[in-house]
Amino acid sequence: MRILFVGDVVGNIGVDMIHEYLPQLKRDLKPQVTIVNGENSTPVGRGISQSIYKQLLKDGADVVTMGNHTWDNAELYDFIGGANRLVRPANFPGDNTPGQGWTKVKVNQQVLAVVNMQGRVFMNPMDDPFATMKNLLPELDTDFVFVDFHAETTSEKRAFAMRYDGQLSAVVGTHTHVQTSDAQVLKHGTAFLTEVGMTGPADSVLGMQADSVIERFENQRPTRYTVQEKGAGLLSGCVVDLNDKTGHASRIRPILISPQHPYQS
């Protein structure tokens, strides 16, 4: 089983990069499941709209994951109940959170569970992702489990992956938008990458216009961040190969398309 995962889609440029490159990646890599994180995909870089959700699916996503900006676009409340391929963090507090924290995709004779989890260090208050995962595993009832772990710190992401090494097929980090170079298969068979990176404007600070971010650092006053809307784009992702019998990973490799790394099919 091969999984293609694409990191946080940011703004219009990110959506355009998906439209341009995801069909090419699927043609060349031939994944059985394609997952895209869409939590920054609106033009303002916060949340997702129904039209963008449908566009990501049309361009080739099988599942769309979210993160800490899940509820930032209020339109989501109107359609999340019927969006069966949209997955928000499973560890939101309370029992009545709209939407779902995981979904399943049938791949030939196997079933892949796609789980979205959010970290707690330097993030908004959430239920314990470690305990949530422990309680969720029996319910998933499959050896094939992919987790988009949306978190701020490298330590929390790696600790989570090592805690569930051998019980999860892959743990791939999102949220910090800069791809790390530590793609690996852990000792007991879980693929891990601390941060897959973002898909959006290349000439930016994590997708935002540089001037507003620089101003915040220089004067320490509140600043409205605005998504960079001009210039080249980049696409960050990874490919994970799983053993068809055990669900353990055999390989994980990053993908980066940018002005410095043009796509070569």
TrEMBL record:
Higher taxonomy: Bacteria, Bacillati, Bacillota, Bacilli, Lactobacillales
Superkingdom of origin: Bacteria
NCBIfam families (alphabetical): TIGR00282 family metallophosphoesterase (TIGR00282)
Organism of derivation: Levilactobacillus fuyuanensis
A Pfam match: YmdB
Protein's recorded name: TIGR00282 family metallophosphoesterase
InterPro entries per record: Metallo-depent_PP-like, YmdB-like
